[in-house]
Amino acid sequence: MQNFTERALTIIKQIPAGRIMTYGQVAAAAGSPRAARQVTRILHSMSAKYNLPWHRIVNVQGRIALLDEESRSFQREMLQAEGVEVDSNDQIDLNRFRFDPEKDVHC
DNA sequence: GCCATGGCTAGTA
DNA sequence: GCCATGGCTAGTA
């Protein structure tokens, strides 16, 4: 069994283009439902090094969670380029674009 | 100590 | 707005 960070990395890398997950969803899928904050730390410190699709993670409300305006618009553009619809409030419809690893089990 | 959360509550309109 | 939460892939000795 790998540690939490390794499991989270695996899940993050599995999110297909054009889909999104929430921080808490990634944490739960990695086996630790309350470790959403840990997911932010992973994305913050390891995205560049491991080429993570960091832009495909949003908060539980389906909104872009980044702090400064510049990074937010960058994330918005990355998502839109993949076909994700992001409105003027950086809001995304979770019902349409959320990725659920459980439903993607292949035999 | 850090971190890009998330859930709950107080207090205003 | 407040604060409980949780795991530690960075950098020094």
Describe the secondary structure blueprint for this structure.
Layout: H1 4-14, E1 21-22, H2 23-29, H3 36-50, E2 57-58, H4 69-81, H5 94-97
Parallel strand pairs: 1-2
This protein binds a DNA duplex (13 and 13 nucleotides) through residues 3-5, 9, 22-24, 27, 32, 34-46, 49-50, 54, 57-61, 64-67, 71, 75.
A few lines on this structure:
The protein has 5 helices and 2 strands; from the N terminus they run H-E-H-H-E-H-H. The protein has 107 residues and is mostly helical.
Task: Tell me what the structure shows.
The chain is 47% helix and 4% strand. The chain has 107 residues and is mainly α. It has one domain (4-99): Arc Repressor Mutant, subunit A. It binds a DNA duplex (13 and 13 nucleotides) through helix 1, helix 2, helix 3 and strand 2.
Number of helices: 5
Largest sheet features: 2 strands, parallel
| CATH class (first level) name | Mainly Alpha
Named CATH architecture: Orthogonal Bundle
CATH fold type = Arc Repressor Mutant, subunit A
Q: How many structural domains in the coordinates?
A: 1
Percentage beta strand: under 5%
Keywords:
Arc Repressor Mutant, subunit A, single chain, 107 residues, mainly alpha, DNA-binding, globular, two-stranded parallel ribbon
